Amino acid sequence: MATQIKVFDTTLRDGEQSPGCSMNLQEKIEMAKQLERLGVDVIEAGFAVASPEDFESVRTIAETVKNCTVASLARAVKGDIERAYEAVKVAAKPRIHTFIATSDIHMQYKLKMTPDEVVDRVTEMVSYAKSLCDDVEFSAEDASRSNREFLVRVFNAAITSGATVLNIPDTVGYATPDEMYELVSYIKSHIITPEKVDLSVHCHNDLGLGVACTLASIKAGATQVECTVNGIGERAGNASLEEIVMNLHTRSDLYNSYTNIDTKQIYRSSKLLSTITGVPIPPNKPIIGANAFAHESGIHQHGVLNNPTTYEIMSPESIGIPQNKMVLGKHSGKHAFEDRLVTLGYTLTPEEIAEAFTRFKDLADKKKTVTDRDIEALVGNAHIDVPQSIIYLNYHVQTGNTISAVAAVKLSIDGEEKESSAMGGGPIDACFKAIDSLADSRLTLDNYTIQSVTEGEDALGEVIVKMKRDDGSIVTGRGLSTDIIEASIKAYLSALNKG
Ligand code: KIV
Ligand code: ZN
Fold first, then answer.
1. Protein residue whose Cα sits closest to atom 1 of ligand 1
2. Ligand 2 centre and the CA of 17: distance in Å?
3. pTM
4. DSSP state of 325
């Protein structure tokens, strides 16, 4: 009989804590709702004790999500566990996820604790977590570099104290798939009651083996996998959710297991995360990269035209890539647009649909045909509510390679129209300088990227800006337009509005 593999998603905790991937509360909630649609079993919503903002986002996600377990991370200390429980207790299915390091190197240099002290701490803290919450996951940080006999001692202490899930992390991405296979098999055959707990793995990708190690662990009997959308995470990232799931799906002959993931939501989850964080998806990224289903060579194209399975081991439809089955244009009505949104998997409120329809009409005026990819970009994360105190009205630029660029930008700031002009190193720089002279912002531009959403001369351009606050944190802004200067202005303003 096929075994169910539970998917524990840590995009909002291990993923979010990686550089350039921070999200605000609204963005985390939007991502959590998408993870629920995707069908993950557990959402690790954050590390509640880390800051009041982290606590608030874990609590709000716990309140919002109904179908997944919601977990908060906590070190094996009382204060962390209390705070984690406070944040998740409103969830339909709450979980406390507590951890302590078990490798010699971590115990000696980081914890400055003896192995006996670590075992005692596990007993004390897992019991304490269990007194608050029925579902307790215990992680042995740096498990793959820990002494195996000691790991079993620690895990047995966790089981005796009430842990429901034992997690075996390859914290530094050091293990090979063979080693993870052996480690999971060893733990499974040496702990006291393996049938009473889920065995979980959490593999980092430092040597590019995160997914391979996770799959090897499943073969050895792991029943929960910890992963992130797009593989974001500390350093080189975590094992990527979409790669693990599509391996299990495509090679079910090999793994004899299944997940609850709705694979048709994969593409949208991946796009939403990339849009929110402003971290682009590399074109050759398995499953979700722009080239993952592109066939360039004539021989391949010929084969795919005759029968897609000649060169496609999975179909783009199976992960929910829009197929442009129906093209909309400026004569398309609201009903056709709404229908398309439903087919693409969006559930928007009537107000959000009305706003998106206005943007669609605007675009259809500039572009001959509006494709599914355009609609997806248009809707994207636009429904993440950020108060728009600065609104773009219009701009003019004068530029050339023999004159300095001059831009005039007109904005509405808190309801008052204001206009300013500035010179810059190029038209976009001049626009940004004009905006700076109007809007009192303490953000500084850190990174700027531009890409086209679709092909063709009237393609929609997408600009992502990353701006730094005084405290070093990053705000991401996104702008879309068939005009790249306008897209740049919109991205800049979207970041300024987030503050
Ligand atoms: O990588 C790691 O070991 C972790 C644990 C806290 C589970 O993220
Ligand atoms: Zn980790």
1. 171
2. 10
3. 0.87
4. -
CB–CB of 101/138 below 8 Å?
Answer: no
Half-sphere exposure of residue 454, counting CA atoms within 13 Å on the CB side? 22
For residue 437, count other CB atoms closer than 10 A to its CB: 13
d(CA 43, CA 11): 8
DSSP 8-state assignment for residue 196: G
And the tokens for 102?
């078990």
- Measured by CA distance, the residue closest to atom 5 of ligand 1 is 141
CB neighbourhood size of 337 (10 A): 18
CB atoms inside a 10 Å sphere around CB 402: 4
Cα–Cα distance for residue pair 332/430, rounded to 1 Å: 37
Beta-bridge mates of residue 370: 328
Which residues is 351 bridged to in the sheet? none
42-78 residue pLDDT tens: 999 999 999 999 999 999 999 999 999 999 999 999 9
User: Relative to the CA of 141, which ligand 1 atom is closest?
Assistant: 3
Encoded amino acid at 46, one letter: G
Instruction: Among 42, 202, 205, 234, name the best residue to mutate to test ligand 1's pocket (greatest count of ligand atoms within 8 A of Cβ).
Output: 202
How do residues 162-208 score in pLDDT, each as one tens digit?
A: 999 999 999 999 999 999 999 999 999 999 999 999 999 999 999 99
Most informative mutation of 141, 142, 206 for ligand 1 (most atoms within 8 A of CB): 141
The two beta strands, 224-227 and 198-203, are: parallel
CA 211 – CA 155 distance, rounded (Å): 24
